[in-house]
Amino acid sequence: MYFFVPYNISPIQQAIQAGHAALEYARQYKDDAQFINFADNWKTWIILNGGTTNSKRDFDAISLGSLNQLADQLSLGDGISDEIKMSFFREPDLEDALTAVCFICDERVFNYEDYPDLAEFILSIDFPDDTKQKYDSFSVNGKTYEELKRLFPNIYKMWIKDVMGTEENRFLRELLKGKKLA
After folding, report:
1. Edge to edge, what strands does the sheet with 86-91 contain?
2. DSSP state of 181
3. What is the mean pLDDT of residues 36-63?
4. Who is most buried in 6, 55, 69, 176, counting CB within 10 A?
5. Are the C-beta atoms of 34 and 78 separated by less than 8 Å?
């Protein structure tokens, strides 16, 4: 179970806010197979730094806090799907500021050893000798998923199908890249 929390509350408060969001998640998705699998087999919490947040009175602000933006990305699924199940918590004692966002993701999102990233997948393909489609790490590493999808559309489709399983998993992997623990 992953959480994003504000950076500027104490570590114990970050954990408490994550707990509030986890309870909201359990209420909403108690019968969901992914939640049941998590509760039966995993039970691991990863609490990440979500940056800044806004209170309800700040909603008309020009820019939303980064935690609010992450919640928007998850709820919209970046246009991927409505399949990302999430919950959040707003702390009444902080003017209803968003203080935790919670979601569960498939093992394929975080297990890079068994489910390699797209660049590694491309480099692992043994192309036939009669093709010139040999790619060195310089030509694929550092490129975004969108760039690699455009350059290698068939390989991208194969990676989604055979490695990631869904576009949702690809979206969540990309969302979590580079995030730091709270």
Report:
1. 46-51, 2-6, 97-103, 86-91
2. B
3. 85
4. 6
5. no
- DSSP 3-state assignment of 44? coil
Please state the pTM of the whole predicted model.
0.86
Partners of 88 in the β-ladder:
101
Which residues face 47 on adjacent strands? 3
Give the mean pLDDT of 143-163: 92
- Taken in order of first residue, the domains within the chain and their CATH numbers are 2-106 (3.40.1490), 109-165 (no CATH)
- Please compute, for residue 175, the number of CA atoms within 13 A of its CA located in the half-sphere on the CB side: 30
Rg (CA), the chain: 19
Give every CB contact of residue 8 below 8 A, 6+ residues apart in sequence: 52
Residue 50: CB atoms within 10 Å: 26
For residue 53, pLDDT over 90 is answered with yes
For 65, the token pair is 């806090």
Asked if 144 contacts 119 with a C-beta cutoff of 8 angstroms, the reply is no
Residue 3 phi/psi, 5-degree rounding, is -135, 145
**CB-CB contact of 21 with 88 (8 Å):** yes
